[in-house]
Specification:
The chain folds into three domains: 58 residues, Winged helix-like DNA-binding domain superfamily/Winged helix DNA-binding domain (Arc Repressor Mutant, subunit A), CATH 1.10.10.10; 203 residues, BirA Bifunctional Protein, domain 2, CATH 3.30.930.10; 36 residues. With 318 residues, it is of the alpha+beta class. The strands form three sheets. Strands 3-4-5-9-8-7-6 form a seven-stranded mixed β-sheet, sandwiched between helices. It has a four-stranded antiparallel β-sheet with strand order 10-11-12-13. It is built from eight helices and 13 strands. Helix 6 crosses helix 8. Helices cover 29% and strands 28% of the residues. It binds biotin. The site of biotin has 19 residues, from helix 5, strand 5, strand 8 and strand 9.
């Protein structure tokens, strides 16, 4: 209901929309409209109301709520069920709980602030309040668990395409970091609940540093944000929607057996290509030169003796 009211008032722009018009369109009482308008004010909207004229929104809050994201969405499934919390321990944890309870496929959980944001390999993800897009997407792909690493790459490709459209030059550090000027602007944590041959659900958690202007000292040399890269005061809700809009066709192609749409983006924007890299295999430290990304999304590594290996997932250092 609140989403509908925001949509009606947004459409009205600078004009007042009468309470009666809202009641007629939504088939609800005046009291219900008034109650929801007050709740929207609590959510940070500044709404002018003049007797006999009606309501208009003068200030939209900088929030990644359903009301702010949905006007920009053109997806069929992704983000159509959107759960927003101002503060949460981790959007991935909340999304996994919702997935276990049977939430719709494509449910998205967003938060302004995470108290225990999680990164890969058990690391923490530093959450800068209201400066980032922090969202987790619940997916239930009918593919073998062995193909799950592709989901992360679909995420990275979608984010990179959304950032490119803003005019920055993102690169993808295989498999799941998005960098600008060699520094990390976005991380992805993909978690899965599965059996040997069946995926129950996947939660893809995305953290994009948007309007963050400084980082804690321990990460300031390796992290960046869109604001620091010249994109000041971006609308986070619009960016979140754009990522989902770009993700849906890549995800659908993947489900239909065509990985080329996302792999071509990962190859074109590959940060590691031709760089010396190190990684560990079964605890053994190895190094080589990164080659291309193959048609299964694996990273080719060329060792000093000329032999090759193909990494399916994992962490790679340069
Ligand atoms: C990494 O680079 O290590 C992955 C970082 C992933 C961070 C995001 S923010 C939204 C979602 N919720 C979390 O707790 N983590 C992911």
């Amino acid at each position: 209901m609140k989403t509908d009211i925001v949509a009606i008032l947004r459409k009205g722009g600078d004009n007042f929309v009468s309470g009666q018009t809202i009641c007629d369109q939504l088939q609800v009482s005046r009291t219900a409209v008034w109650k929801h308008i007050n709740q929207l004010k609590d959510d940070g909207y500044i709404i002018e109301s003049i007797p006999k004229k009606g309501y208009r929104i003068t200030v939209y809050p900088d929030r990644i709520t359903e009301y702010e994201i949905s006007p920009w969405l053109n997806t069929v499934e992704l983000g159509r069920n959107l759960v927003h919390r101002h503060t949460v321990d981790s959007t991935n944890i909340l999304a996994k709980g919702l997935a276990r309870e049977g939430c719709p496929d494509g449910t998205v959980v967003t938060a302004e602030h995470q108290t225990s944001g999680r990164g890969r390999s058990g690391r923490r993800w530093t959450s800068i309040q209201e400066g980032a897009v922090q969202m987790s997407i619940v997916l239930r792909p009918h593919v073998s668990p062995a193909k799950a690493p592709s989901i992360t790459q679909i995420g990275a490709a979608s984010i990179a395409l959304a950032l490119e459209s803003l005019g920055v030059s993102p690169r993808i550090k295989w498999p799941n970091d998005v960098l600008i000027s060699g520094k990390k602007v976005c991380g992805i944590l993909t978690e899965m609940s599965c059996e040997l041959d069946h995926i129950h659900f996947i939660v893809m958690g995305i953290g994009i540093n948007v309007n963050v202007r400084s980082f804690p000292e321990e990460i300031s040399s390796v992290a960046t944000s869109l604001a620091l890269e010249g994109q000041d005061n971006l609308n986070r809700a619009r960016l979140a929607a754009d990522v989902l809009n770009r993700m849906e066709p890549l995800y659908r192609s993947f489900l239909q057996g065509d990985s080329e749409p996302f792999l071509s983006v990962c190859r074109r924007l590959s940060w590691l290509r031709d760089k010396s890299i190190s990684f560990s295999r079964n605890g053994e430290p190895l190094s080589g030169v990164a080659g291309d990304i193959d048609d299964q999304g694996r990273l080719e590594v060329i060792f000093p003796d000329g032999t090759r290996d193909y990494l399916l997932s994992g962490e790679v250092h340069i």
